[in-house]
Amino acid sequence: MLDCNVGWLSEETIIARLSHQEQKIPKIYQHNLKKAAVLIPIYCGMNGWEIFFTKRTQTVQYHKGQVSFPGGVSEHGDIDATATALRETQEEIGLSPVDVSVLGCMNTMPTSTGYLITPVVGRIHHAGLFNQSPDEVERVFSIPLNWLIDSNHWEERDYTRDDGSIERVVFFQDYYGEVVWGITARILVNFFVILGIIN
Question: Phi and psi at residue 90, in whole multiples of 5°?
Fold first, then answer.
């Protein structure tokens, strides 16, 4: 069982490891990509850390029915990636920025779909205050961190895109009917590397 407040993965440890990660410059020029940000919402539950996800509706324009983190494209009024992530999270699942303690940001990640994503890690203080947008989010759910970090629960394999190109994609196993894969899964694995859970 993981303890959220003491031990090898306390909140202080997460903050320290995020702040000491190696800053990498994306290989793809940033001006060619749309800037975006997502929130990785972590919560201290009865059995340790949990990570929250959203399941997108079938009515959104892109990635229908897929599991994702709350987030989206940066807007003119956003002062930084954290502002984008918190704004989008409030719009999508009704979680106020005052209910999130930002612990740090991960390196930006270019995607094959034309975005430059900054993952923002935030500890949420309450797990039952979600009011998701019915047009965007079908449901909000969590998965225990100790399940996610088990290497038996995920793998990297070839995936054929609609245009016929093949890329290496991370897939997690089915967790009570939900499958985390694609860029969301890649962000998770990178997060685990930063935390020192995997190499």
Answer: -65, -40
Beta pairing, strands 48-56 & 67-68: antiparallel
Ranges of the chain with pLDDT below 70: 1-3, 5-7, 23-31, 58, 60-65, 199
Give Cβ neighbours of residue 60 (< 8 Å, ≥ 6 apart).
Answer: 135, 136
160, 162, 157: which is closest to 172 by C-alpha?
157
- Choose which CATH entry (1.10.10.10, 3.40.50.10190, 3.90.79.10, 3.90.25.10) describes domain 11-18+32-151: 3.90.79.10
- CB 172, CB 68: distance < 8 Å: no
Q: Which two tokens stand for residue 55?
A: 């399941």
The whole-number pLDDT of residue 6 equals 58
